[in-house]
Write a structure and sequence with these properties.
This protein has 150 residues and is mainly beta. It has one helix spanning 2-20, and strands at 26-37, 41-50, 57-68, 71-83, 90-104, 109-123, 127-136, 141-149.
Length: 150
């Protein structure tokens, strides 16, 4: 029963994080889903994306809920992404940022810090594919797809 409560708590926090954590200048919102390794999970979430802060650097906070491997992970990622210039419909980006991970196992629930490094490609209409490597207490590897409404 504790995991169900944690998932509901995570979903509530996801909506609040994306809705409130983004600055007033945020222009874009989106959804994401994928798989992670260590722990082996399916995850889903949402994000906000600001207008460029400087040059092509954007703040892209997101929240994700991971389910599986007898653990629930609620991740709050405070990531920055730099979008490389291109004239093509697909644009590469790279980024990084700290994370707060709430890890719920059968025995206990603990907040843990982490850090993510990410690479991705996004179509100018919003579809994106993203690869993350996590350090400290973030999931080791994440591969996801998503869509950003612009």
């Amino acid at each position: 029963m504790l995991r169900w409560k944690t998932a509901v708590f995570g979903l509530t926090c996801l909506v609040i994080t994306v809705g409130l954590a983004s600055p007033a200048s945020a222009q874009d919102y989106g959804v994401r889903a994928g798989v992670s390794i260590d722990p082996d999970q399916f995850y889903f979430g949402a994000h906000a994306q600001t207008a460029p802060l400087v040059d092509r650097l954007r703040f892209r906070p997101n929240a994700e809920i991971g389910l599986g491997d007898d653990v629930t992970v609620i991740a709050f990622n405070f990531e920055f992404a730099y979008f490389f210039p291109t004239s093509q419909p697909w644009q590469f980006y790279a980024g990084a940022g700290p994370a707060l991970n709430i890890v719920d196992t059968e025995n206990d629930t603990d907040p843990k810090g982490g850090f993510n490094i990410l690479l991705g490609v996004e179509h100018r209409r919003g579809l994106f594919v993203e690869f993350k490597v996590g350090t400290i207490d973030s999931p080791e590897i994440k591969f996801g797809v998503g869509y950003t409404w612009k």
